[in-house]
Amino acid sequence: MAVELRDVHQRFGRKRVLRGIDLSVEPGSSVVLTGANGAGKTTLLRVVATLLKPTSGTGSICGLPLGEGDRIREHVGYVSSRGTLYDDLTAAENLRFTARLMGARSSDQRIDGLLEEAGLARARDQRVRTYSTGMRRRLSLAALRLRPLDLVLMDEPYSGLDTEGMSMVDRMVGEFLHAGTTVILATHQAGEATRLATAGYLIEHGRLVPAGATD
Amino acid sequence: MALGSRVAAIVWKDLLIEVRTKASFHSMLFFAALVLFVFSFAIGPDTPLLKRIAAGLLWVAIIFTGILSLSRTYQAEEAGGGLEGLRMAPGDPRGIYLGKLAGNILLLLAMETILFPASAVLFQLEIARNALPLAGIAILGTIGFSVVGTFYAALTLNLRAREILLPLLLIPALVPPLLGAVNSTQLVLDGNPLGEAAVWVRLMVAYDVTFFVVCTWIFPVAVEE
Question: Are strands A207-210 and A182-186 parallel, antiparallel or unpaired?
Fold first, then answer.
C-alpha cells in the first residue's frame, strides 16, 4: 500500500482534529479528500507527509512505518495550501534551493524546463514577492516535479488559480498517475482531478467518510 | 542525501536573502551602535572607567544584537508556512539546525568586524595590537551564543510570546560563555598575553563543544510537531 493508516487520532490540546482515521491507498491511485474548513483535511495530509506525529494510531507510508519520517520523505512530495516559497528569491532561485535541499538535479536547463511547463518562463528572474497568488501556486507545484516521487500530497492545489492554472494542476495529476505516482489531494474545487480520482473521501469532524469510487 | 549539501543549501539561501534585503544586518548594526552609545553617554567621559568596563559593554551589545538577529532566524520560513518546506527534505532534520547555525555565526561575525573597531574608537581601546587573540575570543563567544540561540529560536518558533520567551530562556543559558568572553577580552585589552586568559578560553571551548553536541542531538525533537 502507498498509504495505510489505522485508527489515527490527532489532538491539539483539547481539540480532537482526527478521530480514528482508517485509510488505505493503493500505489498509483488518486484520492481526493473534500470537507469543510477545519474538518481535518490539512492535518491528515500533514500526518501522511510525516510533518505531524499522530497522537495515536499506526500506519505505513510507501511501505515504511510512520515513525521513519526521514526515509519516508525520500518518496513523498507535499505542497501546502500556502506553498513554501521565499519572497526575496526569484522563481529560478526558489526551484534551485528546493532542488539542492531535496538532493535533486538543479541544472539551469532543468529549472528552465520546469518554469516553462508552469508558464513562468518570462517571470524566471523576478522575485517571488512580485508574483500573483496564481503564479506562486504554479511555482509551488512546479517544485514537485524536481525529483521522482512515489507519493504526492497537494493541499488545495486549485486555490487562487485561473482556468489555465487549474488545467495545469489537472495535467500534472494526470502525469503523476501515468508515471505510477500515488496522488492525494485535498480540495474544495475537485475539477478534473475528481474524474481522475480512483477514490473520494469526505472528512467530517475529523472522521473519514468514503464518497465511493468514482472511477 | 549528504547532510553537508543540505546545510550548504540553507546557508546559501539565507545569506542570499540577507545580502539582497540586508534586513537583519542593518538593524543589528544600528542597534549595537545604539547600545554602545547609550552606555558611553550614561557613564560619561570617564575614559579609565570606560576602558575598564569596555569588554563587558561590548559583549552586552553583541548579545542584545544577537538576540535581535535570532528572532529573525526563521522569519523567512514563517512567511512560507513555518519550517514545513525545510522539514519535508529527506534525511536528517539536523541539517536545518546546522544550516541556520552557520548562517547566524557568519552574520554575527560580520557585524563584529564593524563593532570591535567602532568600540575601539568610542572607548579608546588598543585592539589592532591584539587583533588575533581578540578574533579568537570573538569566534568562540559567537559560536557559543549561536549554538544555544539557534536552538532556542527553533524551540520558541511557534509560541505566541516568543519575543519575550527567547531572551528569558537564552540569557541565563549564556552566562558561562558571556563570563568567558568578557573576562578574556578584558584581559587581552589590558595588555595581558592570551595565556593568562586560558581558563576563560577553556571554559568557552568546553561550553561550545558540549552545547553543540547536545543541541544538534536533540534538535529533531525540538521541531517535531
Answer: unpaired
**Beta-sheet pairing, A182-186 with A30-34:** parallel
**A72: which 3 cell numbers?**
519516508
Q: Do B9 and A71 touch (CB under 8 A)?
A: no
A82 contacts in chain B (CB < 8 Å): 80-81
| Cell numbers at A3, concatenated | 498509504
Q: Residue A56: is its pLDDT beyond 70?
A: yes
Are A101 and B8 inside 8 Å of each other by CB?
A: no
Bridge partners of residue B2, in order along the sequence: none
**Chains A, B: CB pairs < 8 Å:** 77
Question: Containing domain of residue B34, as a range?
Answer: 3-223
Flag whether residue B87 sits within 8 Å of chain A, measured between CB atoms.
Answer: yes
Bridge partners, A184 (sequence order): A31, A153
Q: What is the pLDDT of residue B63?
A: 94
The rounded distance, in Å, linking the Cα atoms of A91 and B73 is 22
Nearest to A49 among B8, B20, B88 (CB): B88
- Helix residue ranges per DSSP H, chain B: 3-21, 23-43, 47-70, 75-79, 84-87, 94-123, 131-155, 162-173, 175-189, 198-223
> Which residue of A lies nearest to B88 if distances are taken between CA atoms?
A73
Rounded Cα distance, A191 and B49, in Å? 74
Among A76, A88, A97, whose Cβ lies nearest the Cβ of B20?
A: A88
Of residues A82 and A182, which shows the higher confidence score? A182
Query: Which pLDDT belongs to residue A215?
Result: 43
d(CA B72, CA B25): 11
| Record: contact B91-A51, CB cut-off 8 A | no
Q: Name the domain count of chain B.
A: 1
Residue pLDDT, tens place only, A174-202: 888 999 999 999 987 655 566 778 888 88
Above 80 in pLDDT, residue B178?
yes
Superfamily for A1-75+149-215?
P-loop containing nucleotide triphosphate hydrolases (3.40.50.300)
Is A103 touching B (CB cutoff 8 A)? yes
C-alpha B209/C-alpha B82 separation (Å) is 29
Residues 6+ apart with CB under 8 A from B100: B10, B14, B73, B74, B150, B153, B154
CB A59 within 8 A of CB A66: yes
Contacts of B18 in chain A (CB under 8 A): none
